[in-house]
Structure formats: structure tokens, C-alpha cells
Amino acid sequence: SAVISQKPSRDICQRGTSLTIQCQVDSQVTMMFWYRQQPGQSLTLIATANQGSEATYESGFVIDKFPISRPNLTFSTLTVSNMSPEDSSIYLCSVVEDVNTGELFFGEGSRLTVL
Amino acid sequence: EDKVVQSPLSLVVHEGDTVTLNCSYEVTNFRSLLWYKQEKKAPTFLFMLTSSGIEKKSGRLSSILDKKELSSILNITATQTGDSAIYLCAVYRNNDMRFGAGTRLTVKP
Fold first, then answer.
1. Which residue, among B52, B38, B53, B58, has the nearest Cα to B99 in the 3D structure?
2. E-assigned strands of B1-109?
3. Of B45, B88, B95, the CB nearest to A42
4. For A34, A100, A102, B107, which has the most beta carbons within 10 A of its beta carbon?
């Protein structure tokens, strides 16, 4: 199974600043996603990170707020821009190795707290 | 609109009890249904179901899919305190994975 390294593991940020989360996979994967999990809630899909093109965002999420890069099949970044306390969440990078089964592997998650 | 609905949202039981968690879905381009357990940050994979009526089993956990009823159940027998977690149901479509709200299970000694 894919091994996913995500960093930072956690961070405390000031309102109005931006933070970039990195996701590194130990193998080439076609499908890579970014999820958010707000306190006490389930996972919400932010966007699908597409290699070499713009990410596909879900309703309620926009590129200006959550710019995503995916320069190759093993790496992606998610930036949380102009943060507010409402952005305090766990952000999870995930990949599908086998598109036939859809089994999703997760990074360790990044816990962001915005003061 | 596509949706994945889990019930109950939370459940408190005592050690030794048996629990049944439910997941229903309405999605286009269904490919598979997956169950995950989340204790800390990242969910861990439990089961992947694609065919109706075939039970998947792992120790005290088992799960089955009913594609006619568009639903799945996850059973945990002889619960232990270590089973306390959020259990997430997810439906894999052609291009993404949609999660339900989760069931928060608390097992008391």
C-alpha cells in the first residue's frame, strides 16, 4: 500500500496568514485528494488534485482560498490562504492506488489551529 | 444530489455488547463502498464492498452490502473499549470518494 508523508503534522497560525501543507507519496498515483475535517465532523472533500492541471474543487471551496499544486504523480501541496479561526481543522491528503477498488490511503493529517 | 447517510450518529454501549452501524447512499456511478475507523487523525481502512450479499469479516468485525437497498451495515460483536472510535462509511464513485457523517462509537468498561 502507498505510504504517504504529510507535513506539517500540526501548526498554530495567526489569523490572516497562509500555510502550505505538503503531501509526498512513495509511488506514482493517479488519484489524489485533499479532505478537511472540522472539529466533531466527518471528512469533507476539498478538491481533487490533478497532475499538470488545475485542481477540481468541490462546491464551497475555491482556488483563491485553497490553491493546490500537483507537479507530478507523487507530490501535492495545499495552501490555506488568509486563514481565520474557522479554518482550524485537520487537513488530510489521500490517494487511490487501485482505481478499480477505490481503496483510499491517507496521510497522517495536518492539524491546524488558527488563533 | 449525491449523499451518504450514516446512522446512528453516536452510540454508547458497554463492553461485550454487539453493535450494528448503518450506511445508506444515493450516488451516481457507484463503484464500491468502504468502511474506515478513525481514532486520531487519519482513518484506517476496514472493508471494501463491491458485491451485494457477500459478507466481509475480520475478527469481530463484519460488513455486508445490499445494492438493492443501497445500504451497508457494519457489525461489531463482543465490543471492547478499543473499539471506541468514529466509523466512517464512504462511497467510491468514478472520480472521488464521498464520506458519510460518521458514527461515533463509545464502548464503556
1. B38
2. 3-7, 10-14, 19-26, 32-38, 44-49, 56-58, 61-66, 71-76, 85-92, 97-99, 103-108
3. B88
4. A34
Over its length of 115 residues, how does chain A's per-residue pLDDT go in tens digits? 789 999 999 999 999 999 999 999 999 988 899 999 998 888 899 999 988 888 989 889 999 999 999 999 999 999 999 999 999 999 999 998 877 777 888 999 999 999 9
In chain A, residues with a C-beta closer than 8 Å to the C-beta of B92 are 96, 101-102, 104
CB < 8 Å & 24+ apart, contacts of A75-79: A75/A22, A75/A23, A75/A24, A75/A25, A76/A22, A76/A23, A76/A32, A76/A34, A76/A49, A77/A20, A77/A21, A77/A22, A77/A23, A78/A20, A78/A21, A78/A23, A78/A34, A78/A46, A78/A49, A79/A18, A79/A19, A79/A20, A79/A21
- B26-40 pLDDT, tens digit per residue, is 988 898 999 999 987
Biggest CA–CA distance in chain A, Å, is 42
3-state secondary structure of A86: helix
CB B47 within 8 A of CB B58: yes
Res. B96 pLDDT band, cuts 50 70 90 = confident
To the nearest whole angstrom, how far is the Cα of B75 from the nearest Cα of chain A?
20
Percent of chain B with pLDDT over 90: 77
- Shortest CB distance from B41 goes to which of A41, A102, A109? A109
